[in-house]
Design brief:
Elements lengths: L2 E2 L11 H14 L9 H20 L6 E5 L2 H11 L7 E4 L5 H14 L2 E4 L2 E2 L4 E2 L1 H10 L4 E5 L11 H8 L5 E5 L18 E5 L11 E5 L37 H17 L1 H19 L5 E4 L10 E6 L4 H10 L2 E2 L1 E3 L4 H7 L6 E5 L6 H16 L2
Parallel strand pairs: 1-13, 3-4, 3-7, 7-8, 8-9
Antiparallel strand pairs: 2-10, 5-6, 9-10, 11-12, 12-15, 14-15
Helix pairs in contact: 1-7, 2-7, 3-4, 5-6
């Protein structure tokens, strides 16, 4: 049995309810959504609508709407490539953005002469510098603010409600990446200062791969990223100007959405606060274990009130990839390298080799931690 510590990439395993419901629903109702009047299509459509409502409830944002995409990267591209950019816009991003954000901005930067700036962060205290952020916003007003709610490399949680409150004073468009926090940290996405959030259904929402999306104010007008069939207004060669149909061209992944439906009901039943509490307990055990090894340096970590279960390490005398291979040979799954976030590694001085990242979930067991300890003991003894 593999000890799995790569939950930032995707949580694994999923709740048993997810596996069983996906199998049952797809066998009984695995048809196309909105493409027929028959009962099977109606049941599939009902499931999609119910899943949207469950998301809005869990994220406290019944005033907003859900657009499903196949990946969070697609959702980010929908928002950033779909909005109307003004020339010379000032865009503030966190030091920890994923390539899904930074590569898209890089693609758009020259076309619109974007000025990309970094949200102030105190490297010594390992926290956002809110006072400096206020000064920076005043000196150069933000047009767009993009901020990861939590880093996928270091687990640092951003005070996004305070940041967007300040940026909205200047009329900024506020876009929050919740791929590592949706369903784990109880953020009020209904906050009017938040324009859009992106979520990954297969991460902290405990659904399957294949369904992600954005939650956004319905009056935001974006250009569709994908054009095609919608099941309505088929004679119209323009995408129907109907939310969210305008942004959901093509067939829905009903199998993945059924899994997300089941995971959201599981989350609601367990309670986000209870999931966070258990993950925090597991994470504290992991940190305590790592601190026992003088050959391991924990990077970008400090004990904080809010922290997701992600930690990055470097081993004295070894490259992260070498450690990753040793752990893999001992049936322990971790992630090494730059984690699609090179700027985060540049910020903390771990570029270009990166780090060895460990990430836990609600289902991480003491047996997995014990197995990790045996491996870390082996590495220390053979260093």
């Amino acid at each position: 049995m593999v000890a799995y510590f790569d939950n930032s990439a995707t949580t694994f395993p999923k709740p048993e309810e997810v596996y069983s419901f996906m199998d049952k629903f797809y066998r009984e109702n695995g048809v196309n959504v909105g493409r027929g009047q028959h009962k099977l299509a109606s049941k599939a459509s009902f499931l999609v609508d119910e899943t949207r409502k469950l998301l809005l409830e869990i994220l406290h944002c019944k005033n907003k709407g859900v657009v499903f995409t196949s990946t969070a990267t697609e959702g980010i591209n929908l928002v950033l490539q779909g909005r109307e950019w003004k020339e010379n816009s000032t865009v503030y991003i966190s030091p920890f953005e994923h390539n899904a954000v930074t590569r898209t901005l890089f693609h758009l930067k020259d076309r619109y002469s974007l000025k990309i700036k970094r949200l102030a962060f105190n490297r010594e205290k390992i926290e956002y510098d809110l006072e400096q952020i206020k000064v920076d916003f005043k000196e150069e007003n933000p047009d767009v603010v993009i901020c990861s709610h939590s880093s996928n490399v270091f687990g640092i949680v951003a005070p996004v409600e305070k940041i967007v409150e300040e940026s909205k004073k200047y009329g900024a468009f506020n876009f929050i990446d919740m791929c590592q926090t949706a369903g784990l940290i109880d953020l009020n996405v209904g906050n009017e200062n938040i324009d859009v959030v992106v979520f990954a259904g297969h991460k902290t929402l405990y659904g399957p791969l294949g369904v992600s999306g954005v939650v956004m104010k319905k009056d935001i007008d974006l250009k569709p990223l994908i054009y095609g069939g919608t099941g309505v207004e088929s004679a119209n060669q323009n995408m129907p100007d109907i939310f969210p149909i305008k942004y959901e061209g093509g067939s829905h992944n009903i199998l993945a959405i059924s899994g997300l439906n089941a995971s959201l009901k599981w989350l609601k039943n367990i309670g986000i606060e209870n999931i966070y509490k258990k993950e925090k307990e597991i994470f504290n055990k992991l940190i305590s274990l790592l601190k026992n090894y003088e050959n391991i340096e924990i990077v970008g970590y400090r004990e904080a009130k809010e922290q997701v279960g992600v930690v990055s390490c470097v081993f004295k005398g070894y490259a992260p990839d070498e450690i990753g291979q040793v752990l893999s040979d001992m049936d322990i799954a971790v992630r090494t390298g730059l984690h699609c976030s090179p700027y985060a590694h540049e910020f903390f001085g771990t570029f270009p080799a990166g780090t060895m990242r460990l990430s836990i979930s609600y289902f991480t067991t003491d047996d997995e931690l014990d197995k990790l300890k045996v491996a870390l003991d082996y590495i220390r003894e053979n260093s």
